[in-house]
Write a structure and sequence with these properties.
CATH superfamily of the largest domain: Glucose-regulated metallo-peptidase M90, N-terminal domain
InterPro entries: MetalloPept_cat_dom_sf, MtfA_fam, MtfA_N
Strand order of the largest sheet: 1-2-6-5
Mean pLDDT: 91
Low-confidence stretches: none
CATH topology of the largest domain: Cyclin A, domain 1
Pfam family, one: Peptidase_M90
Largest sheet: 4 strands, mixed
Protein name: Mlc titration factor A
Structural class: alpha/beta
Radius of gyration: 19 Å
């Protein structure tokens, strides 16, 4: 049995081998901004996550140790200062080699139901599994992060359908959250519509993935990707929303990125 297999067979966490953890951090530049103490806490949280969750490969994929740790480290970053209990209501992670097909149903204004297949890189089921494309999971680091995206959906689902309003902490102002999210979403939707009118190149130049224009819930997940990977973009484009995300996640990725950059420059 491999290390991950042995680990998943027990509820008590087992240490991630240091070379594997170092390799994982080296592949994810936004983790390198974390101070040493926070990085150690992320490792411990990832170990507890691996002990609590079940990984399944799909379409012939075998999930090995490196894959499991790679996903766990990214998925646990949003809850670094929240706790593993935020992921308590689900267990399984299904990993496909690449994008996969999801059957969809949609009702048009006349009440006719249309069935179609949609190609997806990730999917989160309310109370059920989280599904990822391994190929896309490796694309992290440039503002696109399917792992953080789907884990953000899981947080959003704790209090109902994913609508961009996860359960806020005591002391957070719901009206301030809604105003920041809705204001940013409306502005982003208008920007995407203008870019679509100009063509594909204009869409690619947007600072945030245009998929966020699909729905406020998708916008929250997409902005969460950028918040952790390219915090300077969110802080510059939507400072009020950045402030709310920092309160919710109890993290300030921009400050730690700047601190890490300053440390390296000395």
């Amino acid at each position: 049995m491999g290390w991950l297999d042995r680990l998943l067979g027990r509820r008590r966490p087992r240490p991630i081998p240091p070379p594997l953890w170092q390799q994982t951090v080296a592949r994810l530049p936004f983790l390198q901004w974390l101070p040493a103490a926070d990085l150690a806490r992320l490792q411990s949280l990832s170990e507890a996550f691996l002990a609590a969750k079940q990984f399944s490969g799909a379409a012939g994929l075998e999930v090995d140790d490196a894959m499991g740790v790679h996903i766990a480290a990214q998925g646990c970053l949003p809850i670094l200062n929240l706790g593993l209990e935020w992921y308590d209501d689900w267990v399984e992670i299904i990993v496909y080699p690449d994008e996969f097909v999801v059957p969809r149903q949609e009702m048009d204004p006349d009440g006719v139901v249309h069935e179609y297949d949609e190609v997806a890189a990730g999917q989160a089921w309310d109370g059920g599994p989280l599904i990822l494309s391994w190929q896309d999971s490796q694309m992290a680091g440039d503002g696109y992060n399917v792992v953080i995206h789907e884990f953000a959906h899981k947080l959003d689902m704790i209090n109902g359908a994913p609508d961009g309003l996860p359960p806020l902490h005591p002391g957070m102002d719901r009206e301030a959250w809604v105003a920041a999210l809705d204001g940013a979403y409306d502005d982003f939707l208008a920007r995407v519509e203008r870019a679509e009118a100009r063509g594909e190149e204009a869409l690619e130049q947007l600072p945030i993935d245009p998929y966020g224009a699909e729905h406020p819930g998708e916008f929250f997940a997409v902005v969460s990707e950028s918040f952790f990977e390219q915090p300077q973009v969110v802080a510059a484009e939507y400072p009020a929303l950045y402030a709310q995300l920092a309160l919710f996640y109890r993290q300030d990725p921009l400050a730690r990125a700047q601190a890490a950059g300053s440390s390296r420059s000395r």
